[in-house]
User: Fold these one by one.
Assistant:
Number 1:
Amino acid sequence: MRPKDAVITEIVSETPSVRTLRFEITFDAVPGQYLMVWVRGVDEVPMSISYKNGITVQKVGEATGAIFDLKVGDSLGVRGPLGNGFTLLGERILLVGGGVGAAPLALLGEAAAAKGIEVTTILGIRGCDDLIFRERFEGAGDLVITTDDGSMGICGRASAGLSCLDLEDYDQIYLCGPELMMADVIGRCGGMEAKIQASIDRYFKCGLGICGSCSIDPEGIRPCVEGPVIRGDRLVGTEFGRYKRGPSGRKR
Amino acid sequence: MDNPVMLAAGILGTTGASLKRAVLSGAGAVVTKSVGVAEREGHRGPAVVQVEGGLLNAMGLPNPSYRHFQEEIDIGRDGGAPVIASIFGSSPAEFVEVATGLEADGFELNLSCPHAERYGAEIGCEVFNVEVITRAVKESASVPVWVKLTPNVAEISALGLAAERGGADAIVAINTLRAMAIDVESCRPILGNRFGGLSGPAIKPVAVKCVYDLAGAVKIPVIGVGGVSSWEDACEMIIAGARGVQVGTALGNAEGYGIFRSISEGLSIYLDRKGMALQELVGAARRFP
Ligand SMILES: Cc1cc2nc3c(=O)[nH]c(=O)nc-3n(C[C@H](O)[C@H](O)[C@H](O)COP(=O)(O)OP(=O)(O)OC[C@H]3O[C@@H](n4cnc5c(N)ncnc54)[C@H](O)[C@@H]3O)c2cc1C
Ligand SMILES: Cc1cc2nc3c(=O)[nH]c(=O)nc-3n(C[C@H](O)[C@H](O)[C@H](O)COP(=O)(O)O)c2cc1C
Ligand code: FES
């Protein structure tokens, strides 16, 4: 498909460095699916769908910076929804998010709650200023917050929040956030990796499974089409948590 | 080669893992992403866009440079099939530097990428350059050298003959066709590079004609590539004169890596049904002058 024109109808500043953009068009998406977002004249980058008609963007570089310059009425080109999202399984689920990784999890939590699934969320953030979507997670179930600086909730990493829960209680565990956080959680769930679903971040260029940019060693998983949500047991023994590749394909 | 179905250059060939996966999925040989002298990040996105009948791409030859690529070739070779390194450069000396810096089962010279300044088709559309570069690499390499040609010329057989004179072991045709798509809402060309190369089903009839012409002009083997997505497409290429086929864009279809087996199995069933060997089918269309 060619990029669709997505006119911005609303911009919400979630934190100083995170904004949600709502569009005139809606996406028939499974939570965890993503869009290739064309910031015209700049670049095309992957973004998870955070609302039926929106994305939530953290400013980290050129393309995301240019998104921050857009106003209501401006538009982006979007291809998608692409990839495989989260699969809802079981009666009690745990969501573990870090930073802007909360974006697809909020949509997932709402979908789960609407189906009567019991939802617990752990959000790991640097400090209280980085908290996003508090109402959405609290509306879906219980919310545990951890902060690196101790300014809110439990002081420590998201894993500190895990230690006060019995992971056996959950039918399925959903992860999205910094890779080291996700790898750490998977490491702590020894034997339960098969009930983990993690949304993976790799350098996406095509989003169509042909360019090879996103390939994960050693099996050559293509997260842009086989993911971005991948089961934890498939990630064990891979490059995940150890290294990734940049735009040239070189490891870094 | 028993299995004539190969992975085309630049499709999932960035890492050893994906090359190996193609082999384990049934590819008879795999061609890597094109690698050059220096590391390149490639063009800005969109680098690929779906259009009617196929894909438009302007990846811009992203690669980690040959200095960081041997490991990927070695991992790919673990799969047990030949790994052909696709290489590019802006001069004979650059091609030779890359070829002597890598160990592979063969080299495919990218003289055909249509969207990278100073590389690919920009030099590969000149008969003289094709011959000189082929000869330079041939003189420095001890493995087979294939030359991949651009269809964006008036007479592709002239390029094929030049490669043959330079000592090429095979011709690979075709690379993508120069093309463009424009977003009507913003009036902007969609690709970050503005224009790029068309691949997929839309270019298959062009590829079949190029293969037919080349096979009629040169004595060395021709490998057909362009829009092959089923065993019938592969068969058609072979009947046009190809000794083997490469598959690119079709890897993005729902069956993904499964495409290699479905093509080679379909081809075997066809050959059994016709009671023919693969070699007998090569260029069979020439029987009808
Ligand atoms: C499936 C998926 C979903 C994502 N969802 C979100 C989201 O909901 N919200 C959000 O803020 N971010 C999300 N990201 C990350 C987002 O794509 C990058 O932050 C963005 O591409 C940065 O672009 P830039 O030009 O601003 O940064 P640059 O200045 O280009 O680089 C900054 C960082 O972004 C990474 N990056 C740049 N281009 C890409 C690319 N094409 N693919 C992947 N990473 C890239 C670089 O590796 C680098 O680490 C997601 C990534 C993936 C793979
Ligand atoms: C995304 C993409 C990247 C490509 N990269 C290269 C490359 O690096 N070197 C090269 O010689 N050809 C490259 N090609 C061209 C293909 O190898 C092939 O010649 C062309 O796509 C036609 O075959 P197809 O229709 O089966 O894709 C690329 C094609 C695509 C779609
Ligand atoms: S981004 Fe191109 S194969 Fe995944």
Note: The longest strand of chain A covers residues 4-15.
Number 2:
Amino acid sequence: MAVVKLQRPKLNFGEKIYFGALIKGFFLTMSHAVKSLRGKSVGAETLASSGLGVTMQFPEQRWDSHLPEYYRGAPALVTDEQGRERCVSCQLCEFICPPKAIKIKPSEIPSDDPWAKVEKRPLEFDIDMIRCIYCGMCEEVCPEQAIYLRKDYLITGLKRADMVHDKKRLYEIGGVRVGLVNKWNELK
Amino acid sequence: MPDIVFQIAIIITKIVVLTFIVVLPLVPLSVYFERRFSAVIQDRVGPNRVGIPFTLLGFKKDFHFFGLIQPIADGLKLFLKEDFTPDHVRKVFYWMAPALTVVPALITVCVVPFGSPISIFGHSEKLVIADLDIGPLFIFSVASLSVYGITLAGWSSNSKFPFIGGVRSTAQMISYEIALGLSIIPVLMYYGDLNLSKIVQYQADNGWLIAPLWNEHGTIFSPAYWSTCGPQWLFWFPAAIAFLIFTISIFAETNRMPFDLPECETELVGGYHTEYSSMKFAMFFMGEYAAMVIGSALIITLFLGGWSMGFTLDAKIADWHIAGIGLAGLIHIGVFLTKLIGFILFFILVRWTVPRFRYDQLMKLGWVVFFEAALINVFLAALVVAAPQLGPVIIGLGAVLLAVVTVAVIWVAKVSEETPKVLRA
Ligand code: SF4
Ligand code: SF4
């Protein structure tokens, strides 16, 4: 490779004195300060700022109504319109999950169950939300379209145990998904 | 005998009130300002939450008070952290260093005049702990001790980054102390006095050094001022140069942003305090901000009129009294603190505006630019101060000499800065 010798730019006297740049810098920072105090910073409107800078102040203001369609929040299990658990505990999500957040204990569906034909459902389904990185791999890999990333983002707890979502909690968050949802299609 | 007891009581009261009630709270306050102001500059909010949690006591609303209690929370956190001493340090010096940075900064408080003499029931008392006749020299000599703290911290930490930080700081402080000392010689020549209280009193009567908008004959609105303001404005030029050099050197002395190479995070992790934790680290932090407060106080006192309000207002309020207590002293403390906080805000603005210099640029600025400029400024000021007593011929001769010296110095500086010829390209 040819060696390219870079010439330092020749500075003229004004640039060498450096004060011009300083004054310009002061104007820049001060104009930011004034704008941010007046709530007129660039982007304050689109970011729904609290009136100081561009920051939205969290517990009072929420991002909820601004969440984009593709937002990836907490993963959750869904039932279909007949109330059937979609998950067949194939454990593919458990396998793919990069931080190993999912733990599934499969079980057989007894033969007197109306959905006996499905054969399997999870007995336990735990997602450790301390481990989950919201990557969406589980959603992508699920052959039954039973697991979805919802828009819940406020997952908090006082103990580690609080942060493990069990099956009941997962269905609570997930709710019902109607119709055949083809993941390559628009969400229905 | 009771007189001595009374005197000692007054001195102790002054020490306690001025150091622990006026100056020390300014340190956390400037940390708070630093965080809020930088946040505002960067379109953020900054710490605005810490307050009194009234909701825990069953009230409706918390009391945030703009997060002013944040520095206390920070301090408490640092206090409760483990005070870890690594195995490989030189223990005695390692423990001494933080104290050595804080103490000098706080000692210098004692010569700063906080206000005009306050009179309580006819007894007038100066608002300065020690009314020394060598104010600025005392500050320089004591403040330069704080370099020991930083150097010892760097050396005793026994690890490479703190060591580089310590060495840098030593070189930087010693270089800039020269510019610092030389730059105020014109100012001291002008006042003919080294007592800071008298310097401020003089400015209150005759106009601030870099804003001489009034003198004993009146303010700029009166014709008497215009006929007598010549020498004042003539001295304004050396004063402005001195102000510039002095302010920038103070930035370098206090290791503030454009010159914070001893602790620059990008190269040296944390610089000289890398190995420190808990309260020891907090002491360095405090020392830095205390130095900043004192530096601002010194600049204000020397150049911006200290506690004086200016425009000959000081003389007018001098004998306002309420219940035997002179108001002037209190108002002047307020004015001084307002100026101080204003200047601290300027420090912060500079920190968030000006990018850090390279180390060779820093040294070049100190030795090649400021040292020479301050030196020439001394002669310029001498000429200006002496001009009224000299005949035109001697003034002209002096001016020619000054010009020759200036050109010679600039030439020397230029030659010394020429890049050496490359022998083999
Ligand atoms: S959620 Fe989907 S991928 Fe995971 S076990 Fe159930 S069916 Fe399989
Ligand atoms: S979103 Fe990613 S990390 Fe979270 S459970 Fe699904 S696969 Fe695991």
Note: Strands of chain A lie at 75-77, 102-108, 120-128, 147-149, 164-165.
